[in-house]
Design brief:
Layout (H helix, E strand, L loop, with lengths): L18 H10 L12 E5 L3 H6 L7 E5 L7 E6 L5 E7 H25 L3 E3 L1 H25 L13 H13 L12 E6 L11 E7 L2 E5 L5 E11 L2 E7 L2 H6 L17 E5 L8 E3 L10 H5 L11
Parallel strand pairs: 2-7
Antiparallel strand pairs: 1-4, 2-3, 5-12, 6-10, 6-11, 7-9, 8-9, 9-10
The structure holds zinc ion (ZN).
């Protein structure tokens, strides 16, 4: 029995928590990671069920890989129907209404891209929506990984700051799901990666998760540490930069590395924020990363730590 499951008797009788109380409860893993409520805890499938169903592959043939930016992949687990679950980590409202509503609008766009590599043109609204979904998924995936695989990874990923979680919650509560925006200062790129090994039938690396830290220099000579995380879901790979934007603003942090180097620029498209004269993104992109080139994607062909900031 997971300690996260809200077995604590009387939990429902407790009053709503204030901000400090919610933060405390979050850290203790007893409350909804989004809103801090202790009411009606539910298990969240961080990787949505529609995606799991779509990749119906042979037993043991789907892997969940977690790796550092340029490290060797660490196979966390082979599962028939892999599932990364945040046990008791979201209240019913956040899970079913808010995040459920988001999945509903994202699925029709993402499933054909990620599962079947189908051609499509992503307009600016779709790019923003996918970016918001990717940021949300990276946040929850890290929280779930910490819960499910404690100590199993050489380096843990980035735990979203309170300001980022607060932003996400406000977006989900105050806007229709299809209008959500990623947090301030976040950046999201999209790339294609061949999740299937050419010589192995029915073998797909359905989920690849590569978190890394992204320190951003500040005017006071220090840094605010955010994340640059690659999340490949089937053929669609998202790269997400986020940072505690409140702290970054207060300390006047610079912007993160604005883009990949020329030699892979055609293989990676920024989908958030929209650049001047940004237009539709045609999927698939002109170039995709072969199965054995995942690291090239993750570290931008070795240029991730150069330029920009
Ligand atoms: Zn909640």
């Amino acid at each position: 029995m997971s300690p996260w499951r809200a077995g604590s008797p009387g939990a429902h009788a407790q009053p709503k928590l204030g901000v400090q109380g919610a933060e405390c409860a979050r850290l203790m893993g007893m409350a909804c990671v989004l809103c801090g409520s202790m009411d009606n805890p539910t298990d969240e499938d961080v990787i949505p069920k529609w995606l799991l169903r779509a990749f119906a592959v042979e037993r043991g043939s789907t892997t969940v890989n977690v790796r550092e930016e340029s490290g060797s992949p660490q196979e966390v687990r082979k599962l028939r129907h892999f599932q990364i679950t945040l046990d008791g980590g979201l209240c019913q409202k956040c899970n079913n209404e808010l995040l459920g509503g988001l999945e509903q609008v994202v699925q029709p766009i993402l499933e054909p891209m990620a599962v079947r590599y189908e051609s499509t043109a992503l307009d600016l609204a779709s790019q923003r929506l996918l970016a918001g979904w990717a940021v949300k998924t990276v946040y929850l995936l890290e929280l779930a990984s910490r819960q499910q695989y404690p100590g199993a990874r050489p380096v843990e990923g980035y735990q979203p700051s309170n300001s980022e979680i607060g932003w996400l919650l406000a977006q989900l509560e105050q806007r229709p799901a299809k209008l959500i925006e990623p947090p301030p200062r976040s950046m999201v790129w999209l790339a294609g990666w061949d999740c299937k090994k050419a010589d192995v039938a029915n073998r797909a690396s359905t989920l690849n998760y590569a978190p890394s830290t992204a320190p951003v220099p500040t005017v006071d000579g220090g840094e605010v540490v955010g994340q640059f995380t690659t999340l490949a879901i089937g053929f669609a790979a998202f790269q997400v930069f986020t940072v505690d934007y409140v702290e970054a603003d207060v300390r006047k942090a610079k912007v993160w590395n604005p883009g990949p180097p020329n030699n892979i620029a055609n293989a990676i498209r920024q989908i958030w924020p929209h650049r001047l004269r940004a237009d539709d993104v045609t999927w698939p992109l002109p170039i995709f990363f072969p199965n054995d080139s995942f690291d090239q994607l993750v570290n931008w062909a070795g240029a991730l730590r150069r330029g920009g900031a």
